[in-house]
Amino acid sequence: MDIPGLPARKAALRLLDAVLHRGETLDQAAHGALQGLRSGPDKALARALAGEALRWLTDLDALIDSATRQILPPDAKPRSVLRLMLAGWLRLETPPHAVIATALPLLSGGPRRLAHGVFAALVRRQVALPALPSLPPAVAERWGARAGAIAAGLADLPPLDLTLRDRATTAEWAERLGGQSLLPGHLRLPRGTAVENLAGYGEGAWWVQDLAASLPARLLGAGQGRRVLDLCAAPGGKTLQLAAAGWQVTALDTSAKRLERMRANLDRVGLTADLVTADALVWEPDAPFDAVLLDAPCTATGTCRRHPDVIHRIGPRQIAELAELQGRLLDRAARWVRPGGSLVYATCSLEPAESEEQAARVSLAPDPIRAEDLPQGLSPTAQGWLRTDPGMLPEAGGLDGFFVARWRA
Question: Fewest Cβ atoms nearer than 10 Å: which of 39, 290, 403, 406?
Fold first, then answer.
């Protein structure tokens, strides 16, 4: 029997399995997990169910455990199905009878009766989720005193941020699109906005880029024709920023495919850059640059409000491996800055090993970030670095977690 909504639940279950048991990102898992879903709404529902289950996983598991005599193993299929059932009911506001009709067919026999009994018991108790998601204990310990504030930023999906090609048009585009600007060249729109349908997309007036992700390139200022190296440049938002600010940009990345997409974006917005497919650990420039921007590969835990899978996929091993890579890249980047030039290091990570600990080992002269360089509500650290997290700027809709430091050669 064809049950409406069942294919989306099957896909959501595959997404959960890929993230929690195989360590894949939601984006990586989506290609295989969503195959067979014909409609856009079904694909959106599958991703929403899996995303909310991951965002609230610790709290959903606590509810499940409160209604079972024996604790279900973490990888038990009934637990995963119950996570999706509760996410559908408590987060997506699906009526309980519809949840039961579309989720129980994912199980058979005893597991089906178990899931039905647990869900029914929780409905009778009229359970509710806490106001804010709970972090897994190991993650909360890693993030320390910031954990509570970060969790506060995870409760809802983030808004849509745009970076404008021409900062002078900020007021014009804010009026045309009905958005909020937190600093010149930035525009914020409500989440759920269809990007391709927005005015200005076809003419290349802007590109999508989280507010925090736009700050590292801003810290290099106007290019005035000077040469800048954007290391690990894909997907390309910072390259577009630098080119729009008048820099002569060399954008280097290991992925030719991602650089092809960057080229398409450059063409769309009418900007130019020299794209180089190479490994930064072996590539050598012909001459030093006036500035180098290293947005290093990282665990991306700072993007947890839009990618809640990172909360459950990332642990000490991945952090240590990437920190070692970041140190090697930072050493090379520092050598490629001409005397008097600037180096900016950034990661979208909340982990000190990938951020503050990396910056502390750089021997160049610090060029402290100033409060006037930042949106209102953000301040540099005592060391002159920038640390953002998803709990900041809550009244404006928050921002991703980033670390940024700047030096002068």
Answer: 39
